Amino acid sequence: MRILHTSDWHLGRAFHRVNMLGAQAEFIGHLVTTARERGVDAVVVSGDVYDRAVPPLAAVELFDDALHRLADLGVPTVMISGNHDSARRLGVGAGLIDRAGIHLRTEPSSCATPVVLGDAHGDVAFYGLPYLEPALVKDEFGVEKAGHEAVLAAAMDRVRADLATRARGTRSVVLAHAFVTGGEASDSERDITVGGVAAVPAGVFDGVDYAALGHLHGSQTITERVRYSGSPLPYSFSEADHHKSMWLIDLDADGTIDAERIDCPVPRALARVRGQLEDLLADPELARHEEAWVEATLTDPVRPAEPMARITERFPHTLSLVFAPERAPDDPDVSYARRLAGRSDQQIAEDFVAHVRGAGPDAREQAVLQDAFDAVRADETVREVAR
Known about the structure:
Layout: E1 2-6, E2 14-15, E3 18-19, H1 21-37, E4 42-46, H2 57-73, E5 77-80, H3 87-90, H4 94-98, E6 102-105, E7 115-119, E8 122-129, H5 134-141, H6 148-164, E9 171-177, E10 179-180, E11 199-200, E12 210-214, E13 220-223, E14 226-228, E15 245-251, E16 257-263, E17 270-275, H7 277-282, E18 293-298, H8 307-314, E19 318-323, H9 332-340, H10 345-357, H11 363-386
């Protein structure tokens, strides 16, 4: 069976001040064309179809167009909701849409009810695991403490239990939206940390032939059978080195995987340039970035006059201007920035406690801080779902 794996469309999202709806529509056309020309048997979309719980009308219209084009093509499609989606809204009409070959899986309780598709070698069971917010689904899965690994492991136990009841030789594909250990994150993914831990081990997907992952925006291979497709378009300059693509997966009769990356069309390359303004304007090595979307970091000790107007003379598609003045190593601003670099909210809070009272928090106080951060994130998720 030939499967086209994609995720993280984020319909309705802009890239800085650039409206990406046209580029997203071009991607949908590319997806449909690829499915038709490459003889795809199934399309899987592993979450974050939309960028927010209440997407703009233009994004909803584009999604509607995508559904109609996939249904007209006659290629079955399995989709799950991601952490950016409203599962309830995305799942409206799922029963009716199912009849057109578009299978929306947004309910955690249905994770062990697969979409079963057949080929010349037998059945392939597609299990859709929507994004599982631990605080909201821990009771559904009977776990004592809310955590990503616990709820995802419980969901996968249900998947394996169902798979064990099926005919021998039934192959399996799991769609999941999660941060799996070994994956490389970017700046454009929403934080899903709970209890100080966001990542789950790849071993949680043992027992299935292929895990089609969503959430991380870089296409990457965690194991031969566990892969991220990544987002089809860039959504932050941290993705400047990404190779935007989809996975074309051939699942053989014995469960063997053959994977091919299919490039996605992107409107412009991304580039990050750094240095003093006059050097950036004169450096011949930077000519290759003149038509790219640019993030320019200026290191001038004193902020230059009209920096954006001047930088756009050479790089007309500059979207982000960052100031990082070169300073002496003992400058207090430098040392403060270094103390904060790469530190989590929890670590920064613990540093603050140590600063104001002379001693860091003990284990009980650390737990209180962590519970507070988890409660804020859970509350944000509940409010997103309720919108």
